[in-house]
Amino acid sequence: MTNDPEPDLGPRPGAHAAATRANDPLADDQEGEAITAIPLRHPWRVLIAVVLVLALAVFVIDAAQRDDFGWADVGKYIFDKRISQAALVTLQLTLYAMVIAIVLGLLLAIMRLSPNPVVKSVAWLYIWIFRGTPVYVQLVFWGIVSLIYPVLTIGIPFMTPWISFHNDIFTNLFVTAVIGLALNEAAYMSEIVRAGLLSVDEGQEEASRALAMSWGQTMRFVVVPQAMRIIIPPTGNEVISMLKTTSLVAAIPLSIDLYGVSRGISAVTFTPVPLLIVASLWYLLFTSILMVGQHFIEKRFARGSGQRKAEKSLPPVGPASDITNIRMNNIEEGRQ
Amino acid sequence: MSGTPMVHADRVSKSFGSNRVLKSISLTVNSGEVLCLVGPSGSGKSTFLRCINHLERVDAGRLSVEGQLVGYRQKAGKLYELRPKEAAFQRREIGMVFQRFNLFPHLTALENIIQAPMRVKGASKAKASKRAVELMERVGLGDKAGHYPAHLSGGQQQRVAIARALAMDPKLMLFDEPTSALDPELVGEVLDVMKELASTGMTMIVVTHEMGFAREVADSLVFMDGGVVVESGNPREVLANPQHERTKAFLSKVL
Predict the structure, then answer these.
(1) Chain B partners of A218 at a C-beta cutoff of 8 Å?
(2) pLDDT tens sequence across A69-109
(3) Domain extents for chain B?
(4) Would you call the peptide bond into A150 cis, given omega within 30 degrees of 0 as the criterion?
(5) For testing contact with chain A, the best of B97, B103, B104, B114 (most A CBs within 10 A)
(6) pLDDT (tens digit, 9 = 90+) per residue, B56-80?
(7) Which backbone phi and psi does A73 adopt, to 5 degrees?
(8) Residue B161: closest C-alpha in chain A
């Protein structure tokens, strides 16, 4: 700290004179003298940055030379047809599971907001169970559920069933994986949707009702479009999270997804590390694309609200958000 | 004018839990009349207004619009609660303007106005938009059709809200403190639109603290306090010469 008792900010005789001289408050000439201070130095910032860059450089140079990483094998398998097909399976698992989870989540959210206490409790129970147990355990369970219920029946309980058929749903492991992932995700999605619906001001529903619109029209044209602004960002995060969670389908066990196939190849070639890197690079590629897509969807649903609000709700990591933040800062500086 | 009053309230009561907010309110509004409801906050004026289009339900008494019971159907001496669809049908000809505008923020001014005509009355987008532009011009905002509510001032938003209510061609307009949330310099533009509306013969019930508006435009004035009608009559007479102590006390504070 400096010992100088009076820095540049104190009142100055010149400024006083200017203030008293001017009678017209809009006149330009009463502005105070511009501040020309020596800017505060930040030596620690520079030091920490240098240390971090050096550490990263050392790690990269070292990793490039280590045999265990098997960079040659990474190059060999990254575009292997088996890997790219497995990547497609991972995308399909993510897409199907998320679509089912969003629809089911919306249903559960509306059930939880229902005035019927039984309907409300059923939704609560579902969410309690599926959020309260690990998804890995749930997937193991769905993997063996066809042993518990080998035959499915329709009819009056404890009487001769009208229709009975083999439980083929849960013998198809891909379908089992989609159902297992979707049922778990629906519990999370319902909470996201519920928060979104509750975030819309009550006055909106009231205005819509006063205009003689029905409950369905009010939800569809007034409440849900506004709730989307709250729902989209966490849903994007859930999609990204789901993409990675698909690797847990090994619990079912399903092994045709990206991680499963990489593991299968490495079990034959005894090169686990390069195949882990291959799988990770594919996961990274997909999550990066999803982040960019999320940015544009958020922009679309931010219509009518202040621009900056929408920018704030972007995920903290991601190329798109960084670029726009810088741009926003530039615009703000330009205004001042 | 027909014999049936536009709004007829016969000893209407309403409670929220154990709190009785309306106690035997009786009043009549004839077609083409402008009624101003005044009184301290918490006196039940807004609740009464919201009962008229069934946003709140009445507990006791009878409330009817154009001779039709609001929210209920009477059959063989018994009252049946209306289905949501039937209640919505009753609201088609009752426009409402809110204190906090309640415009749909995700839609432009024009889209706000065309929603109900399109969704409720099944009007085509072209037809609804044409009418919306006319209404925007009528409220003095002909050049703001494409603006989102966030980019309009409070006074402009409230004028869009009035246009939105008018788009349903209502026979009755309810105003719930339409200028209370506005900056003082924006109050006039909204009151001007309301005056113009009154001059065309629209039946209006206005909850307001604007005594100047009440004196100039209203055909009758009702002073409410504590859930009861304390005093009512010609606005110029009531404002100049209040009979009741509570009316005097209230007016001395707001005038």
Answers:
(1) none
(2) 999 999 999 999 999 999 999 999 999 999 999 999 999 99
(3) 7-252
(4) no
(5) B104
(6) 999 999 999 999 999 999 888 899 9
(7) -70, -35
(8) A207
